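User: Predict the structure for this protein chain, please.
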Amino acid sequence: MIDVYSWTTGNARKVYLMLEETGLAYRVHPIDINKGDQFSPEFLKISPNNKIPSIIDQDGPGAAPYAMFESGAILIYLAEKTGRFLPSDDRARLDVLQWLMFQMGGVGPMFGQAGHFVSRKDEPGMEYGLQRYVKEAARLFGVMDRRLGASEYLGGPDYTIADIATFPWCQDSEKRGVDYRDYPNFTRWFETIAARDAVKAADAVAERLRQGRAAE
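Assistant: Here is the predicted structure, written as structure tokens:
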């Protein structure tokens, strides 16, 4: 059993998606970041950077409980635990890890900033931030579109943790001030992944949390 301490954000949903794709048993412990749950002493023992998501794998290395934070590290761990969604071939593995880091260092932070300013666009003093981050979000969509014109998925020919990490951040692209349909290769990729059963299940977990119900 894997205990997931998280909420409804893009970083949270990538872990739900990975767990649904792998079929690992898990239970969710809500960490409502709007109420400051991420600063509780109990949560900080698991996630010292007070960020969601974090997990405790009750059957971790050495058959003992093991806690992890940082969503990208969690995806690598789960991929290695299950032998899925991360190639064993050295070159293919490195391709996937590069695109995973692209999400961690670019898509996540920049889309988050774009969403922040788009949601506050009518407030005074938002214009510079709005232009800066929406422009960067559009650039990143362009990077993905070019990549997906040459490759079926971000990391290569197969669906991997690079796609699992990136997809949740690309949902509701209008919240980033971008229409994903302006990027045809990206649109093909996005709609292919959106149709996966695991995506629907992961979205349902996030929705139950929004509605205040336990998601197990």
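The longest strand covers residues 2-6.
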